[in-house]
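Structure ticket #2291
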Amino acid sequence: MYEYRKLTPEQRVELVKERLAKGFPPHSPPHPVQDAQFYHITVGCFEHQARINTQERRHQILDLIFDKFISDGIEIDAWVILPNHYHLLVRNINTLRLSTLFRFIHGPLSRQWNLEDNITGKVWCSFSDRAIRSERHYYTTINYIHYNPVKHGWAKSPYDWSASSVHWYLEYQGREWLRSTWVEYPVKDYGKGWDD
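Resolution: structure written out below.
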């Protein structure tokens, strides 16, 4: 989306034509795979503004996500909530229901946070989803999610970030499991052909 704004009008028209030819929506993220068991979901704040900028807000949205997703039969295997975006690794989702669930979560929060911040405007972008294709993809995604606060400079260690499932894994799987998973499924090449 941010690259789109840097394109010339002619390049924008060409890009939209290419997307439509592939059956994608003209501007929002496509959701081509709708029958996978697991999905990596990413939701960003509009223009990557840090609107989830307090620990209280991060835990508020996490509580809403768990409430809405679990009541819809969706299981959440990993999560991290950052100031300007969040990631979820989920299973048992009906991809057609995701937009509705996110409206139930994001709508009230947008209003509340705009009132608290004394501003108006859009808070969220569309979500993107990626079907998990293998065991390697699954565990690398868990590591990617847990490492995200470090990757973006919000923490020095994944354990320093409270709005993350790394603490759940630490408690129930143990530090040794987290270390061995990190070694076996490193994130260094995440997104560059490892899930083929």
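Closing remark: Residues 103 and 109 are 10 Å apart (CA to CA).
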